[in-house]
Amino acid sequence: MSGFVQGTRGLSLNTATIGWQIPLERTVALCEEFGFGGIAPWRHELHDQGIAEVASRLKQSSLQVTGLCRGGAFTAFGEDGLQRAVDENKRAVDEAAEIGAKCLVLVVGGLLDGSNDITRARDCVRRALEAVLEYACDVGVPLAIEPLHPVYAAERSCISTLREALDLCDHLGEGVGVAIDVYHVWWDPGLFAQIQRAGDRILAFHVCDWLIPTRDPLKDRGMMGDGVIDLPSIRKMVETSGYDGMCEVEIFSENDWWQREPAEVLRSCIETYGRHVMALEEVTYP
Amino acid sequence: MSGFVQGTRGLSLNTATIGWQIPLERTVALCEEFGFGGIAPWRHELHDQGIAEVASRLKQSSLQVTGLCRGGAFTAFGEDGLQRAVDENKRAVDEAAEIGAKCLVLVVGGLLDGSNDITRARDCVRRALEAVLEYACDVGVPLAIEPLHPVYAAERSCISTLREALDLCDHLGEGVGVAIDVYHVWWDPGLFAQIQRAGDRILAFHVCDWLIPTRDPLKDRGMMGDGVIDLPSIRKMVETSGYDGMCEVEIFSENDWWQREPAEVLRSCIETYGRHVMALEEVTYP
Questions:
Q1: Torsion over CA: A209, A213, A217, A221 (sign)
Q2: Smallest Cα–Cα separation from B250: which of B66, B78, B82, B93?
Q3: Alpha carbons B188 and A164: distance in angstroms, whole number
Q4: B95 and B68 in contact (C-beta within 8 Å)?
Q5: Which of A53, A54, A286, B137 measures 20 to 30 Å from B193, CA to CA?
Q6: What is the phi/psi pair of residue A88, to 5°?
Q7: How many other C-beta atoms lie within 10 A of the C-beta of residue A10?
Q8: In this structure, what DSSP letter does residue B273 have?
Q9: ipTM above 0.90 for this complex
C-alpha cells in the first residue's frame, strides 16, 4: 500500500455516487465530516452554485479536487460542430483550473450522428483533443482520457480500451493521461500490461463494482465488493505503476445507492474501500 | 464479393433469429423455400426432435449446416466440474458430426461461481478446450471459439476479443478457429488487424446489428441496417482474409423479431443482407 494515501484520506467522492441529491456545498461538508481526502464534482454542480463560490469553498476545505467531470463529447455536434465542442471543452478546462482540479476527465463521445464509421469518430476525437490540449497546457490543467466500456462505444465513447487511450496519449504528447475506472476495463485481458505501460500517465483511479446481473449498463453499478471485479489486484497494479493519488468512488446506481441517504452512502464507501479495495481485515471509522 | 456465395444462397439462418418459435423441421422447410443456403440449429432443437431424424432431414435438404450452437460453458460447473463440462462438450461434438455441421460454436463461459478471478476462469477454459479439442479432431469437427462482447465477460464468456480468441487458437493448434459475430467485435479498434490475422481460421461469420438505444444487451439485437455496425466494411475484411463461407444471421430480439412471423423474419434477413451487408442497390427476392 505504498502508493495510495492511507485510510479514508485516500478516498475521494465522485459526486455522481450520491446521485447529486444535495447541493455541492453540502456534499463538500459531508466529505469533510467523514474524513474523505478528496472530491470530484460535476460541471452542472459548479454552474448551479456559481463557480466562484464553489472554488472558494473548495479552497477553504480539507479536500483535494481529484478531477472535474467532465469534458469530452467531441462528436456531439457532428463533424462540422467540432469547433463548438472544442470551445466547450476549453470552458471546462477553465473551470477545472478555477477549482484547482487535478485533471479534467474526458469522455470523448461516440459515433457521429447518423454515421456508422467509428474510425471517423475517432479521427474527430483526435483532432479535437489536439486543439483542446494546447489550451489545457497553457492553462496548466492535465487532461485525463477515460476509456469507457465497449458497451458504450456507440453512444458515449469510441475510445474503449486503455490500450487505445494510451495510443492516443502517445500521439498527443505531454499534458494528457488517462483516468482508469475499474468498471470499464476489468474484463480486458491486456489490462495489467497496459496499466504498467501507463505509468505516471494515470491521472485518476475510479472504483465501483460490476453487478451480476447488471440490469442497466449505465446506471446499475455496484458498491465495491457487491460485484465481480477483482479490486485488490487492479489496485495493486495501479500502485505498482507508480500512481500515488487517491481512489475515487464513482457509482451510477439509479435504483439503489441514489435512493439512499448521502451519509449512508459515504459510510458504505469507507467500509467497502477498506475491505474490498485495500483488502483490510478490519475497517475503523473516523 | 469474391469470397461470399452470391445471393440468398450465401445466407444461413441461425434458428435463434426466429426465437425457436417453430419446430426445426418447419424452419428447415422455410429456409429451403426462401432459398437460404444454410442453417445453424441449436442443440435443444436436436434433442426436441430427435437427432437421427434431424440429421436425416438436413441431409435430404439443400442446406449446409454452418454451425451447431453451441458448446462451451466450460466454467459452468466450477473448477471441480471441468470434466463434466468436457464430457458435455464431447456430446456436442458428436451431435455436430451427426448433423454434418461445419463447426461447433463455443461460448466458453464466464467467471467461476463465487469467484472474481477472470484469469482463473480463462485458465479453466484453456484446459477444458485442450481436452475437447483432442476428441473433436478425432471425430473431425472443427471447434469455433466465439469471442463475446465484453458486456458478457462475467456471465457468459471470459474470452472477449478476437485477439484473445486467436491467442488461444495459437496455443491450441490445429482443429480450432473462431466464429466472428459483428455484434461482439464491431467496437474493437484492433478488429481489422485481427481479422487479417485470423485468415483461414474464420469458421463462421455472424451478422445482426447494434441498436441505439440498446435496451437489453442480451436480447435486443437489431436486423442488419437498423443499427450502427459498419457491416459492409467488416464483411469485406472477412472476405479479404479468405473466408468463403456463408453469412449467418443471428438475432436475439425478444420484443421485436421474436414476436414476428418466421416468414416475415426470413424475408427481412434476405432484404437487409443484400442491402446492408452486401451493399447492393437492388435486392431481388427468390
A1: negative
A2: B66
A3: 10
A4: yes
A5: B137
A6: -60, -40
A7: 21
A8: I
A9: yes
Rounded to whole angstroms, the Cα distance separating B27 from B205 reads 20
Interfacial A residues in 174-233 facing B (CB < 8 Å): 186-189, 210, 212-214, 217, 227-230
> Considering just the CA atoms, what is the radius of gyration of chain A in Å?
18
Of B116, B158, B212, which is closest to A229 when you measure between CB atoms? B116
Q: Pick from B117, B149, B228: which is nearest to A111 by CB?
A: B228
Cα–Cα distances in angstroms (integers) from residue A61 to residues A13, A22, A64, in the given order: 14, 18, 8
- CA–CA distances in Å: residue B280 to residues B6, B34, B214, B272, B284: 11, 19, 27, 10, 10
- Nearest in space to A42 (alpha carbons), one of A77, A12, A14: A14
How far apart, in whole angstroms, are the C-alpha atoms of residue B145 and residue B272? 26
Q: What are phi and psi of B204, to 5 degrees?
A: -155, 150
Cell numbers that stand for A97 in this block: 483550473
Give the N- to C-terminal CA distance of chain B in Å, as an integer: 19
Q: pLDDT (tens digit, 0 to 9) for every residue of chain B, 286 residues total?
A: 344 666 889 999 999 999 999 999 999 999 999 999 999 999 999 999 999 999 999 999 999 999 999 999 999 999 999 999 999 999 999 999 999 999 999 999 999 999 999 999 999 999 999 999 999 999 999 999 999 999 999 999 999 999 999 999 999 999 999 999 999 999 999 999 999 999 999 999 999 999 999 999 899 999 999 999 999 999 999 999 999 999 999 999 999 999 999 999 999 999 999 999 998 877 765 5
Find out whether A189 and B160 touch, Cβ atoms under 8 Å: yes
Residue of B nearest to A215 (CA): B216
CA angle B247, B172, B121 (to 5 degrees): 90
Chain B residues close to A116, C-beta within 8 Å:
227-230
Query: Which pTM does this prediction carry?
Result: 0.96
Cell of A35: 474524513
Cell of A256: 439503489
- Alpha-carbon gap, residue B285 to A237, rounded angstroms: 57
